[in-house]
Design brief:
Elements: H1 3-14, E1 28-32, H2 37-51, E2 61-65, H3 73-83, E3 87-91, H4 107-115, E4 120-123, E5 141-145, H5 153-162, E6 168-176, H6 177-187, H7 195-224, E7 229-237, H8 239-250, E8 254-257
Parallel strand pairs: 1-2, 1-3, 3-4, 5-6, 5-8, 6-7
Length: 273
């Protein structure tokens, strides 16, 4: 390695991304349901009670789109701009009985997540009965799931907006162990690279970068919200299995993640499952 390469590596490793806090304002919330009449309004009351326990949602306007108002995804996409919501609340398999099976989101939610930039809160289906006992009660336990790039200020700012003042906010980043082993296998076949040293250094660097960023998040947020407990979880693992474990072991109330994959017209590979 040349001295120029060494200097560049040292310089780049010294750079640390710093979190910037920008408050997320929730002033208009839209519930989309396939229910109607009293059932739809009762579900809206439940959602309203849930959201109003968050940090800054006590002065929101709530709007309701009932099942009789739309049939196709096109109908739904035309309705949403009328309300100009800051948040859309809905659930899987609108106008479908497929909610009985844990295999799909349904066409309405799937398209909604890809065709709008408005955040979507995915709620338990009102008829399914598979939600946790503590679901829709409060947001004391909120977790942020970051993607390949851990630095994501907007995602964390949204998670803060939904956290209770004295709740727990978990900042998480899981490096896919199978991807890591794939690249290590390739590196092991390059004779000019010390495989053991590369494994150690790459492993440590992949954990260090999100760890440093989460430390900056904690410093900034603790200065503003001293009652909020902020914890970081950075490790290697199988992505879906790891997050399933965290959801169950921590009894999470809300999971905050990016659904879009900017590289393609499809949902992010971790978000869908």
């Amino acid at each position: 390695m040349s001295q120029v390469d060494q200097f560049e590596s040292v310089f780049r490793s010294a750079y640390k991304a710093v979190f910037t806090y920008n408050p997320v304002k929730l002033r208009s919330i839209l519930l989309v349901t396939d229910l109607g009449g009293p059932d739809a309004r009762a579900y809206l009351d439940k959602v309203k009670t849930f959201i109003e326990q968050t940090r800054d949602a006590s002065h929101c306007d709530y709007f309701l789109v009932q099942g009789s108002e739309f049939n196709t995804t096109g109908d739904l996409l035309e309705l949403i701009p009328r309300y100009q919501p800051d948040l859309i609340c809905t659930y899987r398999n609108l106008h479908s009985g497929a909610w009985r099976f844990p295999h799909s989101l349904g066409e309405h939610l799937d398209v909604l997540l890809q065709r709008t930039d408005i955040p979507v809160m995915v709620l338990p289906h009102p008829q399914a009965g598979y939600q946790a006992d503590h679901a829709l009660q409060d947001t004391s336990e909120v977790m942020v799931v970051t993607n390949m790039q851990a630095v994501n200020d907007p995602l964390i700012n949204h998670a803060v907006a939904f956290s209770r003042p004295a709740g727990n906010l978990y900042l998480t980043h899981v490096e896919d162990i199978s991807v890591f082993e794939h690249y290590m296998d390739a590196i092991s076949k390059i004779d000019v690279i010390d495989t053991d040293l590369a494994r150690e250094r790459l492993h440590d660097q992949l954990l260090k970068e999100p760890g440093d960023y989460f430390d900056s998040c904690s410093r900034v947020l603790k200065a503003r919200f001293p009652q909020l407990s902020i914890r970081s979880l950075v490790n290697f693992g199988e992505l879906v299995a790891e997050y399933r474990h965290q959801i169950e072991s921590l009894q999470l109330d809300l999971l905050v993640l990016s659904a879009k994959d900017e590289r393609q017209h499809a949902m992010h590979s971790v978000a869908y499952p």
